[in-house]
């Protein structure tokens, strides 16, 4: 889940990032700014974290920083994966952030980490028709995964909560019950809505497709799955789909966004999450604090969190 930079000191990397971005008072020319500064750390309790800094490619000058943390928590195995990726697509810089929460195993979530953004960035219409490209890439990734999984006994699946920075826009695409929340002047703004079987529109879609939901401790599709959209889960097709819901937001005015698995959101509300980290300027520290707070509040799930902060001039 973590890059090969795990063993580098996060503190040293942050210091290097600060040094490279600060202005010089002497006459020596400043070194060219690196497009992406990566830093990672690992501590004894298996909480992985890291982050980086890059620059926005929209009409306004500015940069963003991002931090991620992932923690197995009280679960016996780790089924959360995440990805942070900065790429050039058709001459434009695009940042991709995603959290993938597996169920029935980690196979699907790991597949999404390795393939979803690769498939999306290689879509021929990604820049000119981004929303259509997102829908098509998500659906095709699901098809490709199910084809690769033929013959495997275990029926695994995964959510996907993603945010892409493209020009002056944030494009959020969500499948399942991981979640993306933005902060505007300290106010929590949901950028995704959980796909739960008891959502009236989701229930209607499932029943019209010939499926059903029943109460089994919580509402479940076919009495099995507690989310109504996911990648994988071949035995529950066509009721459980990987069709993303997409929301577009202007970066201007957004302080930061939080992308996290339900191990966080089960115990921390949108408003609480924003309040907890609104004064923490280090995105990695913010992601770690959210995970620590969720664990302290009794979260029994894997917990993964990505925080992206904006600094516009």
How would you sum up this structure in a few lines?
With 313 residues, the protein is α+β, with helices and mostly antiparallel strands.
What do you see in this structure?
The chain is of the alpha+beta class and 313 residues long. The protein has one domain (49-195, 230-312): PPM-type phosphatase domain (Phosphatase 2c, domain 1). The chain is built from seven helices and 16 strands. It has helices spanning 10-21, 107-121, 130-148, 200-208, 262-265, 270-277, 283-296; strands at residues 37-42, 47-55, 62-71, 80-89, 92-103, 157-158, 160-166, 169-175, 179-184, 187-190, 213-215, 219-221, 231-232, 245-250, 256-260, 303-312. It has a seven-stranded antiparallel β-sheet. Strands 4, 5, 6, 7, 8, 13 and 14 form a seven-stranded antiparallel β-sheet that branches. Helix 2 (107-121) packs across helix 3. It is globular and about 50 Å long. The chain starts with 9 loop residues before the first helix and ends with a strand. Mean pLDDT is 87; it is low at 1-45. Pfam families: PP2C (PF00481). Its EC number is 3.1.3.16. It comes from Arachis duranensis (Wild peanut).
């Amino acid at each position: 889940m973590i890059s090969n930079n795990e063993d580098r000191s996060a503190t040293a990397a942050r210091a290097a990032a600060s040094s490279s971005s600060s202005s010089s008072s002497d006459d020596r020319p400043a070194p060219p700014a690196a497009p992406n500064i990566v830093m990672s750390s690992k501590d004894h309790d298996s909480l992985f974290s890291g982050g980086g800094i890059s620059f926005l490619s929209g009409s306004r000058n500015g940069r963003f920083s991002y931090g991620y943390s992932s923690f197995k928590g009280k679960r016996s195995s780790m089924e959360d994966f995440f990805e942070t990726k900065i790429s050039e697509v058709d001459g434009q810089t695009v940042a991709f952030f995603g959290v993938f929460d597996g169920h029935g195993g980690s196979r699907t979530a790991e597949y999404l980490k390795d393939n979803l953004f690769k498939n999306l960035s290689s879509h021929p219409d990604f820049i000119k028709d981004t929303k259509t490209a997102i829908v098509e890439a998500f659906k095709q990734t699901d098809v490709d995964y199910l084809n690769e999984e033929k013959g495997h006994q275990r029926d695994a699946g995964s959510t996907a909560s993603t945010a892409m920075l493209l020009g002056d826009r944030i494009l959020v695409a969500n499948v399942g019950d991981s979640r993306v929340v933005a902060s505007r002047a300290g106010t929590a703004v949901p950028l995704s809505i959980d796909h739960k079987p008891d959502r009236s529109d989701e229930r209607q879609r499932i029943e019209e497709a010939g499926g059903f939901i029943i109460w089994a401790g919580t509402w479940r599709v076919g009495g099995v799955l507690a989310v109504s959209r996911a990648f994988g889960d071949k035995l529950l097709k066509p009721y459980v789909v990987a069709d993303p819901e997409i929301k577009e937001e202007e970066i201007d005015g957004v302080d930061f966004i939080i992308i996290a698995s339900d191990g966080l959101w089960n115990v921390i509300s949108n408003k609480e999450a924003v309040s907890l980290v609104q004064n923490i300027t280090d995105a990695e520290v913010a992601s770690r604090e959210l995970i620590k707070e969720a664990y302290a509040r009794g979260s029994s799930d894997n917990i993964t969190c990505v925080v992206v902060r904006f600094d516009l001039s």
